[in-house]
Amino acid sequence: MRQTAILLAAAGTAAAFVSNTPVSHRSAQRSRSSLHMGGASGVATTLEGKRVKVERIKGLLDTSEMIFTVPAGSMSVSDTQDLRKSLPEGTVMSVVKNKLMARALEGTDYESASEMLSGPNMWFFIEEDIGATIKAYNKFTKDYDKKESHPILGGAMEGVNYDAAGVDAIGKLPSKTELIAKIAGGIKAVPTKLARVVKAPNSKLARAIKLATEEESDA
After folding, report:
1. Count of CB atoms situated within 10 Å of the CB of 90
2. Tens digits of per-residue pLDDT, 9-31?
3. According to the model, what pLDDT value does residue 166 have?
4. Are 159 and 112 in contact (CB under 8 A)?
């Protein structure tokens, strides 16, 4: 009986081929298509993926002291990895589509940066060390011969937009750590300077008293 069933099934399949009737089989490709592996049909293009991306960027904006942007195209994976490694801790670089970036910027201190949303952009979100980040990027473009193809397009800080020259100028300012060190050094020097100021009048006073005493003795 079992052999008969097997023979009948095989015959049915053969008949289907002969009569050009399609045989229903579960497609392995169809089962994989539900997995969001990125790319054109990946999670970044789904509504949920876009929402997650926008929320992530909003979080970066909330913790950033400054942001700036550069062209995103024509950079190899290897170059991108090298650039990422050269950045100081606390700085995040990310390629963000303009529509998603515009949504993320809404209602933040960086909303004015929406004026820079033109063409494919790579954004840098600087949490603390602004100077070191800008210097690292400028060094990368020099070492990898990308000054012409990947210049700094502009940046924003505290609600103000800056052009490339402005971003470079900000990068040359002392960092917060350097300022704290200078202030601490200045405070430390105050007691020494104060002691000198106090000591000088006392010396003059002592000489004046000594001179007056000598005059009285002579009299």
Report:
1. 15
2. 444 444 443 444 444 433 333 33
3. 97
4. yes
Average pLDDT of the residues of the chain: 77
**Closest by alpha carbon to 72, among 162, 171, 146, 155?**
146
- Dist CA 196 CA 199 (whole Å): 5
To 5 degrees, how large is the angle CA 81–CA 84–CA 89? 145
The pair of three-digit structure tokens given for residue 86, joined into one six-digit string = 């050269």
Cβ contact 95:121 at 8 Å: yes
Tell me the backbone φ, ψ of residue 22, rounded to 5 degrees. -65, 140
Give the alpha-carbon dihedral of 159, 138, 80, 122, to 10 degrees.
Answer: 20
Please give the helix or strand (H or E) that residue 205 lies within, else none.
helix 176-218
The CA distance from 219 to 213, in Å, is: 10
